[in-house]
Amino acid sequence: MAHKVVMSGFGGQGIVLMGKLLAHAAMMDGKHSTFFPSYGAAMRGGTANCSVVVSDEEIASPVVRRPDSVIAMNELSLKKFEKSINSGGTIFINSSLVKMLPSRKDISAVPVPANQIAEKLGDVRAANMALLGAFLKKTQAVALETVMNSLGSVISERRKGLIGMNCDALKSGYSL
After folding, report:
1. E strand or H helix at 107, and its extent?
2. Which SS3 state, helix, strand or coil, does residue 16 take?
3. Extended beta strands in the chain, E state
4. Smallest Cα–Cα separation from 56: which of 83, 77, 29, 78?
5. Per-chain mean pLDDT for the chain
6. Rounded distance, CA 42 to CA 61, Å?
């Protein structure tokens, strides 16, 4: 089993954290993983995306040209990566910010009201975790519990107090 995912949004949406978390959790689950971030010119507000590959076997390259899944946190990300998804793949859309659906009929779309979920939990910055939770449920790439247990290893020291809320957001997305 190998699963290739591209995560994309604008700076400040936690794209890189989401990718690091998935890659770390995959390793903790006994799988191979790669994490390949890409940043725009500006950190907060600029474009950010990353590629993660999770596999039961060694991974030859971290570069993902044809992902099985895309997590699109904003409309620009949907437009940019929709065309690259493998036929039969899935795009997870932050339906709080993206009002359109993909035009392709050979892929499936999973709309997740990520911002609303995060706002109900107290901080819109947890929207990335709601989308990651939905991704985990659909793909089963990594166990939800492993991802929650990995948060303490990848989240910065100053944000450790947000682990509980991030776990709640993961579970909310997973339960959709």
Report:
1. none
2. helix
3. 2-10, 32-39, 47-55, 69-72, 90-94, 108-112
4. 29
5. 94
6. 27
C-alpha–C-alpha distance, residues 167 and 150, integer Å:
10
Does the structure show a pLDDT above 60 at 19?
yes
* 3 state DSSP class of 108: strand
Q: Enter the tokens of residue 92.
A: 């997870």
Q: Is 79 helix (H, G, I), strand (E, B) or coil?
A: helix
Phi and psi angles of residue 49, each rounded to the nearest 5 degrees, phi first: -150, 165
Residue 150 in tokens: 């990995």
Q: What residue type is assigned to position 57 of the chain? A: E
pTM for the model: 0.94
Tokens 């109900």 found at: 120
Judge whether 67 and 81 are in contact, CB under 8 Å: yes
Per-residue pLDDT reduced to its tens digit, 50-104:
999 999 999 988 889 999 999 999 999 999 999 999 999 999 999 999 999 999 9
- φ, ψ for residue 54, nearest 5 deg: -120, 130
CA–CA separation, 120 vs 127, rounded Å?
10
State yes or no: pLDDT of 42 exceeds 80.
no
Angle between helices 144-154 and 127-139 (to 10 degrees): 140
Q: Which two tokens stand for residue 65?
A: 């040209």
Amino acid at 33: S
